[in-house]
Amino acid sequence: MSDVGGDAGAGAIDHESAEFRNAKQEMDRLVMESAREVGKPNAMFARLSDLFKALPASRSVVKWSRRNSAWPLQFGLACCAIEMMDFGAARIDAERKGYLFFRATPRQCDVMLVAGWVTKNMVPEVKRLHEQMAEPRHVIAFGECATCGGPWWESYNIVRGIDQVLPVDVYVAGCPPRPENLFAALMKLQEKLGGVVEV
Amino acid sequence: MRFERKVLVQGLGELKGQGYGYLVKITAVDYGKGLTALYFIRDLAGNRDETVEVEIGYDDAWVPTVMDVYPAADWYEREMMEMFGIGVHGRVASRLLLEKWDGVDPPLRKSFQWNAEYRTADNKDVAAARKANTVGAPSERQAGRNAPLPAASAPGATARGPRAAGKKGAARGADDKSGGGDKR
Amino acid sequence: MITRINIGPVHPSTHGVLRLVVGLDGDTVKEVEPHIGFLHRGVEKLVETRMYMQSPPYMEKLDYIAPLSYDEAYVAAVEAALGVEVGERAAYVRLIQLELQRIASHLFFLGALCNDMGQMFTTFMWGFEDRDRVLALLEEATGQRMFYVNMRVGGVTMELPPDFSESCLSFLTYFEKRIGQYESYLEKNPVFMERMKGVGVLSADEARALGVAGPVLRASGIDYDVRAARPYYAYKKLNFSSVTALKGDNFARYKVRMLEMRESVRLIRAALLSMPEGSALGATTKLIGPAAKNRTVSVSRELPRGECMMYMVADPQRPYRLSIRDPSFINLAALPYLAREQRLADLFAIMGSLDLVMACVDR
After folding, report:
1. CA-to-CA distance for C212 and C307, rounded, in angstroms?
2. Are the beta carbons of B101 and C37 separated by less than 8 Å?
């Protein structure tokens, strides 16, 4: 990349060259090169960024921050939503582990807590919300219905387990799981996000 | 009380005049030989209940709308239309309550084929396992209870009407009519 | 000129999965079209394939905020089909548990209402703290926090533990003061009062015509409470009196529920003090039990959200057809009428005051 940059920096165009015969090709090439010049980070910044990535601690810093601030998407569909709310309420406080801001917008969230049964009508919405979450994103299947269809196993309108639709990271058993169970699931997710979990 | 379909609206209007001003529910029952639409109405002040039954056949399944008499009938009629396939004449065509319901088979009729299609379509391995008789849905695990009971505890067969010819129906056809020991 | 916006199935309101297509003219709501069915799982069909006592878990998940009430309503229908009477002490135990469940449900209503009005989480947290205490009491009594499946034919699963009476009475003493605190703190708040008074008015004739149920009906001036009109268990003996309001606005619906909580406290206290001795246990659950005697039964119960009527066509061992008339379905059907010509923000306040549960709506 650096040698191409050097050539464009020369300024003179050889009218006799084979490249000039196809003007459009030449134009594209020039545009691409200029785009590369613009997008290239500041050299000092690039050096700092490389140094930071080379440090063994940096990966753990990133992991630490992701682990301790896994913001959930409030996707409480049914009964497990009540236990999810209890999980966020004052007794088992989710926020002290970084599980803040139960938002209904997926754009700022890291974890999707699927709480409740998912019907066939709801599948496109579930998928859309999951796709709207920015990576890295995770899914916790909360409760029996999200894990395997639960008591509605034989219903005609139910998806038997959210893992038929989404990739699931943690399954929580129970109908509904106690809020303490969800807390343990959160800690398991934190382990999965990386590193040892400080209790 | 039983009304004919053609006097339904008029009859309900008369009952409303007698004080039954509150509609509790509109639903239907599939009795096997036909459908029966049920209208539950109540007199709040006098605390009396009345149930109006209208019998309709499978092929001719429609009732007139009673929304003029009871505005609460709107959503109940929509639910009845969708769950039983009973058309309601005289009302504005409305969306299905269950959006994107792809089947045209009304779920709450006894002829609804839900075992055969809806379960195996989602879980092909469950179907295979069921064939191999290894693992299955909870009702499968109770296969041992399908042995015929002693006569004393299975009093009287009830007419069930056409039931779904599910995957297990063929194997237990004899037990289907008895009072116990059958799952589907 | 109507602008339609979509308040999608997933939204921060806690009532569940409901899509509202709202037609707006500026800030005024012109029409509301609720789209439901996102939680439909065919409970009425599933129940037809199960024996009688296999179904209570299905019934409980219909109203997941007050599951015991549905459990009890269904088991009462089964008892009516089998021709079984509930024992004396069991009736009292059921009443205590039902009224505790009603308190828990109304606390959730309060939290959800204040959430919907934008007060993120203060009342919600307080309401949940008190609800946790009630759930702890119910856990002592039944063994589970939610989805108790505590009702058996003729009684309950477990006797009340020996110290239940004391812990319950001490909770009630604490809770009475607490209701006063909720009321004073909310009713002194000018924002709360302005968003509740005069908003979403439902007159008595409209309420009767729309067929709404429960506190929504009683807040519009129609005095109909199943516990008073068709008393069951010990409601008559304990002199239950229903709570009615006149105005029919949001504030009336809220106030009816607060006063119902007070009435529940009174009932539980009276029931604990006057409970007869004996055994509260019902028949142990055998899947195959005695055959049903009555072909069609109809049982009405007063759930925290309204009146639930279970109409059951009873086969000997399982329901041939169970038709559940739940209150949230018809209360939601009244939303388009209530929300007309209101501000968009008031739409959620009205929905909060109707106290809906989508799983109930979408059976």
Report:
1. 9
2. yes
ipTM more than 0.90?
A: no
Kind plus residue range of the DSSP H or E element containing B52 = strand B48-56
Token output for A173? 């058993």
Contact call for B98 and A154, based on CB within 8 A: no
Rounded to a whole number of angstroms, the distance from the CA of B9 to the nearest CA of chain C is: 16
Point out the residue among B22, B38, B73 whose CB comes nearest to the CB of C208. B22
Domain containing residue C196:
3-361
What CATH number does domain B2-89 carry, 3.40.50.150, 1.20.120.80, 3.30.460.80, 3.30.70.2730? 3.30.460.80
> How far, in whole angstroms, is CA C162 from its chain's centroid?
28
- Burial (CB count within 10 angstroms: exposed 0-12, middle 13-18, buried 19+), residue C231: middle
Q: Supply the pTM of this predicted model.
A: 0.81
State residue C174's pLDDT score. 94
Say if residues C104 and C152 touch (Cβ distance below 8 Å).
no
Task: Name the 3-class secondary structure at C311.
Answer: strand
User: Which B residues 77-136 touch A at CB under 8 Å?
Assistant: 98-101, 107, 112, 114-115, 118-119, 122-123
- CB-based contact A79 C10, cutoff 8 Å: no
pLDDT tens figures, C207-236: 999 999 999 999 998 999 999 988 988 898
* pLDDT tens-digit map of B83-99: 888 888 888 766 666 65
| CATH architecture entry for A68-193 | 3-Layer(aba) Sandwich (3.40)
Beta bridge partners of B22: B42
Chain B: partners with 3+ C-beta pairs within 8 Å: A, C
Say yes or no to pLDDT of C55 above 50. yes
The pLDDT confidence band at residue C257, using thresholds 50, 70 and 90, is very high
Q: State whether A121 and B119 contact (CB < 8 Å).
A: no
CB–CB contact B156 C291 (8 Å): yes
Q: Is B167 near chain A, with CB under 8 Å?
A: no
pLDDT, chain C, mean: 89
